[in-house]
Amino acid sequence: LHLRDVPQVLISKTIDNDVGAMPKGREIAFPDIVNYFTLGFPTASRKISSFVSLKEGLRTTAYSHRRIILLESMGMHAGWLALSAALGHPDLIILPEFPLNYESFKEKVIRRYEKEKNLIIVLAEGARWENGTYISVVEGEEDDFGHPRFRGAAESLARRLKEDLKQYFDTRNVNFVNPSYLYRSGAPCRLDLEWAGRLGREAVKLLATNPGEPTFLTIRRYGEKLALCPRSVAGVRFIEQLHRFVDGRFYDPREMSVTGAGREYLRCIAEDVPEEEYGLKDRTTRTSKTLKKRQ
């Protein structure tokens, strides 16, 4: 309670990108997104899109060895990081906000694999089944903040697919990867560095003049430009009031993929990794011989 008498300026820092607010309505007005991104998310989103890409990620081994690879991202309740993997062109994305129908998902995997002979699936650690239960969680255990302890959604789903798809094709190459803390390790990208500096300097200025009420320094997007916008949070009593989630305007649950609006949102944050590497423009016509020759 005594903290309310101390000048406060808040800056969001989390690779989960889940602090802010999304505008209501059917269409997205980008200037109305409160806090366009959180510090750390641009760097992490570039890492995950790189991890799955053909340019320098898992697609090469998935293609050359006909693998199905499930890549796990952080994201207990919000799937922004998993969604950003779309810039690396995975085949399917699974988010916590959209519970998974396993049978429908399995059919998609079978059809895609029979056509492409390789598959990359990205899922957030907090992905859930249709009945609301988590794909993989340690029952009865919570962390210091009351969150469930996840134990590997990618591993759990890969094991189930490996068993259930045996009747359709050889499943020895159904694999999982969990980069874990690699998403938030290493040097930050230029966008993160620039905005960390701008937000920090503005916070010091505000504190020196005593803003009078708790202030949240947000980032807004106007056209192609980003701007710093202070916002009062005097009426916010719980952090849950500032939680931001992915909705159907950015993600298509039927296709299990990013929408056009979602890709446009991500464009200002991370670069789209070119899919046309090694001269392979159409993945349906790729051959391992061509791939190895280009390498």
Structural overview:
The protein has helices at 41-52, 59-64, 80-84, 102-116, 153-164, 190-209, 260-267, 288-294, and strands spanning 9-10, 68-73, 92-94, 119-124, 137-142, 148-150, 174-177, 215-222, 225-232, 251-252, 257-258. It has 295 residues and is of the alpha/beta class. A four-stranded parallel beta sheet has the order 3-4-2-7. A three-stranded mixed beta sheet has the order 1-8-9, covered by helices on one side. Strands 5-6 form a two-stranded antiparallel ribbon. The longest helix is centred in the last third of the chain and has 20 residues, at 190-209. The model is unreliable at 284-295 (pLDDT under 50).
Chain-wise SSE layout:
Blueprint: E1 9-10, H1 41-52, H2 59-64, E2 68-73, H3 80-84, E3 92-94, H4 102-116, E4 119-124, E5 137-142, E6 148-150, H5 153-164, E7 174-177, H6 190-209, E8 215-222, E9 225-232, E10 251-252, E11 257-258, H7 260-267, H8 288-294
Parallel strand pairs: 1-8, 2-4, 2-7, 3-4
Antiparallel strand pairs: 5-6, 8-9, 10-11
The succession of helices and strands, N to C, reads EHHEHEHEEEHEHEEEEHH
Main pleated-sheet profile: 4 strands, parallel
| pLDDT < 50 runs, ≥5 residues | 284-295
Cross-sheet strand order for the largest sheet: 3-4-2-7
Structural class based on helices, strands and sheet pairing = alpha/beta
- Look at the structure and give the mean pLDDT: 87
What general outline do the C-alpha atoms trace? elongated
The number of distinct helices, counting runs of at least 4 residues, comes to 8
* Residues in helices, as a percent range: 25-40%
Kindly, what is the distance between the CA atoms of the first and last residues, rounded to a whole number of angstroms?
62 Å
Number of strands: 11
